[in-house]
C-alpha cells in the first residue's frame, strides 16, 4: 500500500520559513519523480514544484521561484519543500505527489501523478 505523508505545516508570520516533508512508503521511491501542489480555500489546486527521480532537475511555479526549494533524499524516501520569505498568499493546503513520468515539462499537471498525500496546512499571517 502506497502512502505519502506530509508534515511540517503550521502557522508562520509573513517573511518566515517552513520546511515541509513528505515521507513515502510502499513504492520504489527512486523510480518516481515528486511534486508539491497546493490548494487555497475557494481556489483550484496549483502546481508548486517538482523534482526528478535523481534530484538533478527541478521546476517551480513562477510565484515561488527564489523563495522555495524542493529536494529529495532517496535513501530516506523523503521529499522536502523549503519555503522561505513566506507571504500570506502562500496560505494553502500543501500536497505531495508521485509520478512515474520522466518528462519534467508535464509535471505541472496533476493528471500525471499516481499517488497523493493527505496534505498539510500552511498558514501565513500578515
What can you tell me about this protein's structure?
With 126 residues, the protein is mostly beta strands. It has no helices and eleven strands. The strands form two sheets. Strands 2, 4, 5, 6, 9, 10 and 11 form a seven-stranded mixed β-sheet that branches. A hairpin with a 4-residue loop joins strand 7 and strand 8. The relative contact order is 0.31.
Q: What is the H/E order?
A: EEEEEEEEEEE
* Distance between the ends: 40 Å
How many DSSP E strands?
11
Strand content: over 45%
What is the residue-mean pLDDT, rounded to a whole number? 97
SS-based class: mainly beta
Low-confidence stretches are none
Helix coverage percent: under 10%
Number of helices: 0
Major sheet: size, sense and barrel closure?
Answer: 7 strands, mixed
Shape: globular
From the alpha-carbon coordinates, what is the Rg to the nearest angstrom? 13 Å
What's the topology here?
Elements: E1 3-7, E2 10-13, E3 18-25, E4 33-39, E5 46-51, E6 58-60, E7 68-73, E8 78-83, E9 92-99, E10 115-116, E11 120-125
Parallel strand pairs: 2-11
Antiparallel strand pairs: 1-3, 3-8, 4-5, 4-9, 5-6, 7-8, 9-10, 9-11
Summarize this, please?
The protein is mostly beta strands and 126 residues long.
Features:
mainly beta, 48% strand, seven-stranded mixed beta sheet, 11 strands, four-stranded antiparallel beta sheet, 126 residues
